[in-house]
Amino acid sequence: MRVIYLYTFCLPGHVGIQVNYLIRIILIAAILLSLSDFAFSKVESGTETSSKNTCLSVEYKANKSSSQCIYSGKTKRMYQLYVPEGVINNPGLIIALHGGGSSAKILENYSALNSLSQQNKQFIVAYPQATNKLWNDGRMSTKYFDSSQSQDVQLIKDIITQLASLNIDQSRVGIIGISNGGLMSQRLACEFEHSDYTYGIVAATMSVELKDICSSQKQPQKIIYFFGDQDTAFLTDGKLVNPVKPKQIRGHHMGIKKSIDVWLKRNQCTSDYVSLELPDKYNKKWGKWKDDHTTVHIKQWENCLLPVVWYKVKGGGHRWADRDAKNGLISRNILNLGWASHEFSTAKTFWDFMMSDNKEKK
User: Fold this and answer.
1) pLDDT score for 143
2) For residue 331, what are the domain limits?
3) How far is CA 263 from each of CA 7, 91, 95, 205, 207, rounded to the nearest angstrom?
4) How would residue 152 be classed by pLDDT, with cut points 50, 70 and 90?
């Protein structure tokens, strides 16, 4: 049950009437969006009552997001699917994992993966929905986090198997996630045995629970991190918190450098790396509304069995970088997510990384 409080403001004369009217319109729109998101999450948490037969095949319309169902184990799960019109034979597949408390549709709306897919027609996109909006990313349960009952590793395997009916290229499968979804992407990278897959981690580092699992496995993985040094969920003291309510501790993490060290060791990288800096195109020289308050530094370890890349977003918050990412007061102040970089597209960068040389280097 959601409790929503409506506040009005007293302003003089006709200005007060107009402002109050505008505020009410905005609040009504927010309520409708909230309720629609809540309804969507209920459906995608496996609460529908249709039979298993309805989930055996994949049906979609090109250039439109379609809701798909799948039985993973004995549980009905949901995901959104996007297939561009004119998609190539044997397309690649990107599986995008939303953040905790969010939804598949929300990530679909802001990730820009669909528009990139429509533009290049090289891949399709699946957006799975987490049970109760939380992925079982390997963390121990806390007062504010418990997803231990969800069999999410098996879910991703099952989705890939189901989408094989669309003749996807198994050598071009990428899994990318943000926040809780980024932790889940790392868990999959730690536990999956496929060296052909590519993994993207956005606004997340490795949880302390995953370190032992990842360190004990020998399979190298192709992996890229996108992390802001002003992240408001993965704090510098090792706490993992809810950005909106920072006192809600949801676990502990290793930090970005130690997380990358795990993969440098597992991928048998040397200490050598290539360092790049992206041009700072969105800065105060072009006006304060163009300034994204970020600069981007890239480290690429290429002398490895498989490459490891780190996009360090200086000034960046708990965000998915994109030219069209919103940097208004709601995102930065009310939700406490910080600045989103406009200097690069997370979607395109991840796809380009997927398409780079996959062969293991000696």
Assistant:
1) 66
2) 58-355
3) 50, 28, 21, 12, 14
4) very high
